[in-house]
């Protein structure tokens, strides 16, 4: 069904400056930092954004309203975003635009096979590229004005929250899924342009928790970054 809040929001026509005016977007993303960048781009573009941090939350959102666009991260705490995309791709009426997103740049083929119309590799932070990606799937809308090529810089407090979340999941008492945490950290490192954390996350993902060194290295980097961000 349509977004029940849409009748309460004054409707404006899309324009080159706000080409996504009237678009409702559901973002299924477990990283607050990555989500914040897309939230800012939606705000600049005129789109209304709802966020779900897992598949369960996304499905609850979809019981209430039908968005124009769904962007789903592939690696989620309770499963793969490709499962959600596959379900939505088979529904009738279909969500007009289904977009998969991942820190794994090689996941595009799997995303398209699942039913995604488009694949975005992280980081997603360029306003013009984001607008063009969405507009390519909504051909009846006006083209965007020339956008700022500078990347959006989300609130660093959101980055700290993600780092703290990952550290908590890596606590031995939490019994977290190491592969999930490693994939989460890889995506976070890409969004934060943190090459050292990305390399450590990739090493942990390749190791699958078989050896202590990769996990210890990741924990050390997380401690350092959390200490450095204490003022955020």
TrEMBL record:
InterPro entries: Bact_response_regulator (IPR050595), CheY-like_superfamily (IPR011006), Sig_transdc_resp-reg_receiver (IPR001789)
Protein's name in the database: Response regulator receiver domain-containing protein
Domain Response regulatory: start-end pairs: 24-137
Gene3D superfamilies, A to Z: 3.40.50.2300
Keyword Phosphoprotein: yes
UniProt keywords, alphabetically: Phosphoprotein
Residues recorded with modification 4-aspartylphosphate: 73
Taxonomic superkingdom: Bacteria
SMART domains: REC
Pfam families tied to this protein: Response_reg
Gene Ontology biological-process entries: phosphorelay signal transduction system
């Amino acid at each position: 069904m349509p977004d029940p809040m849409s009748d309460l929001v004054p409707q404006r026509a899309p324009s080159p400056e706000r080409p996504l005016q009237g678009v409702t977007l559901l973002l299924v993303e477990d990283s607050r930092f990555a989500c914040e960048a897309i939230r800012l781009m939606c705000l600049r573009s005129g789109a209304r954004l709802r966020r779900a941090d897992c598949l369960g939350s996304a499905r609850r959102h979809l019981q209430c309203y039908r968005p124009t666009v769904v962007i789903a991260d592939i690696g989620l705490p309770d499963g793969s975003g490709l499962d959600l995309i596959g379900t939505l791709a088979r529904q009738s009426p279909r969500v007009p635009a289904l977009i998969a997103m991942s820190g794994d740049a090689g996941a595009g083929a799997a995303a398209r096979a699942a039913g995604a119309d488009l694949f975005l590799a992280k980081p997603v932070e360029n306003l013009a590229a984001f607008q063009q990606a969405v507009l390519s799937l909504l051909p009846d809308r006006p083209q965007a004005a020339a956008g700022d090529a500078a990347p959006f810089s989300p609130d660093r407090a959101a980055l700290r929250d993600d780092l703290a979340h990952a550290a908590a999941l890596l606590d031995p008492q939490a019994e977290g899924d190491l592969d999930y945490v490693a994939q989460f950290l890889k995506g976070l490192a890409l969004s934060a342009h943190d090459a050292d954390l990305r390399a450590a996350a990739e090493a942990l993902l390749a190791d699958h928790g078989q050896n202590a060194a990769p996990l210890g290295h990741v924990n050390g980097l997380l401690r350092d970054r959390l200490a450095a961000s204490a003022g955020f």
